[in-house]
Design goal:
The structure holds 2 protein chains of 2 kinds.
Chain A lengths: L2 H15 L6 H27 L3 H26 L1 H7 L5 H4 L1 H7 L7 H31 L1 E6 L2 E6 L15 H32 L1
Antiparallel strand pairs in A: 1-2
Helix pairs in contact in A: 1-8, 2-3, 2-7, 3-4, 7-8
Chain B lengths: L1 H54 L4 E7 L9 E8 L5 E11 L2 E9 L6 E5 L5 H8 L4 H15 L14
Classes of the chains: A mainly alpha, B alpha+beta.
């Protein structure tokens, strides 16, 4: 993990993850949305290069991304309207985040398969990071676990609601900021260890 | 001359493609918005019923949807409600409120003879629910308690004039 990607993670976390309610189910929705937008954006970008539509490229890409976000919101209205109300403007944040825009405009000249695998892999790494973040806040902060089911949201209270714990802090927005810093440090630590191990393997070979 | 003509044709073709895609997307979105309108009302009505049943079991009947004529309608819904025992009628408003725990969907009851009353948070249980509901003087909830009358006045039907108002 290089310094640039750490900055991208920080910016993306502040823009997408911190303002969202700290429920795991919200995390699942946002991560699905981010992956969907990344896939749609990458395909549209490839379409633009394939048909040499660079003159209208940016307008076309932005129009499709905005339409895709509205499409996600309406799917949410159709399936879980409560989450559509709760997330509100947060649904639109991934579209304008530096994460999506950065990867969307940063890989010119690559083939479609390479472009998709590169962008989706980055998206997958960030999705894991975001899901850990939401899961921790849901369990420690809210004392619950929320999941998506066929019938809507499943919520299980894990800790007795009568006992108010100091961990409620992690359910708050300031708690989310502290939490994001701690998870980012751990994430960078693990990625760096993996890189060191990979480098050692190369040297041994 | 030929170059200018070719270039114009190429540009015209590109902008034609752009216009076609935008019109297509607009049509698709309009269709899905129309399709989802009914689900928006029925789904959120169920959530209001759940909150009212949890806080006052068997006391309220949730009635017709009331349209809100304001931009806030994107994040809120309003329904007529009637009390089972004395027929007192009110409005139940589900609205997204910003709290220190992030945005949450809150349910309020209101009629024009009384101040709006915070009932609870939809889809939230456990210790955070207890913290929010125990805190009687939350500034954000108080803000919405003051705003609810304005929102209800902007609904498609006029506010109840205190028919069987709740004491």
């Amino acid at each position: 993990m290089n310094r640039k990607s750490i900055y991208v993670y920080i910016a993306a976390t502040l823009a997408m993850v911190v303002p969202a309610p700290g429920r795991f189910v919200c995390g699942i929705i946002l991560v699905l949305e981010l992956n969907f937008l990344m896939l749609v954006g990458t395909l549209i970008k490839s379409f633009i290069y394939h048909f040499k539509l660079q003159t209208i490229g940016n307008v076309l890409l932005l129009s499709v991304m905005i339409a895709a976000t509205m499409f996600v919101r309406q799917i949410l209205v159709l399936t879980i309207p409560l989450l559509a109300v709760q997330l509100g403007f947060v649904i639109y944040l991934p579209t304008v985040s530096s994460f999506l825009i950065g990867y969307m405009f940063g890989s010119e000249g690559l083939s479609l398969s390479k472009d998709i695998s590169r962008n989706m892999l980055q998206c997958l790494f960030y999705s894991v990071y975001a899901l850990i973040f939401f899961l921790f806040r849901d369990i420690a902060g809210f004392g619950t676990i929320t999941l998506l089911t066929r019938h809507g949201i499943y919520e299980k209270v894990l800790f007795d609601s009568g006992k108010i714990s100091a961990l409620v802090f992690f359910a708050t927005i300031p708690g989310a900021l502290v939490c994001s810093a701690v998870i980012l440090i751990l994430h960078v630590y693990v990625i760096n260890k993996i890189t060191i191990l990979e480098n050692l393997e190369h040297i041994n070979d | 001359m030929m170059d200018t003509e070719n270039s114009s044709k190429k540009l015209l073709k590109q902008y034609g493609i752009l216009a076609g895609i935008i019109v297509g997307l607009f049509g698709l979105l309009t269709g899905i918005i129309v399709l989802s309108e009914n689900k928006w009302h029925t789904g959120l009505r169920e959530e209001i019923i759940d909150v009212l049943e949890e806080k006052a079991p068997g006391e309220w009947i949730v009635g017709e949807y009331v349209g809100i004529n304001a931009p806030i309608a994107l994040n809120s819904v309003c329904f007529q409600v009637r009390r089972k025992d004395n027929g007192a009628r009110k409005y139940a408003v589900l609205i997204r409120i910003e709290t220190i725990y992030g945005p949450l969907p809150a349910v309020f009851l209101y009629n024009d003879k009384s101040v709006a009353k915070f009932i609870g948070i939809a889809g939230l249980h456990g210790r955070v629910q207890k913290v929010i509901e125990d805190e009687s003087d939350d500034a954000r909830i108080n803000y919405w308690i003051k705003r609810i009358p304005d929102i209800v006045r902007n609904t498609a039907t006029p506010a109840y004039s205190g028919v069987g108002a709740i004491k």
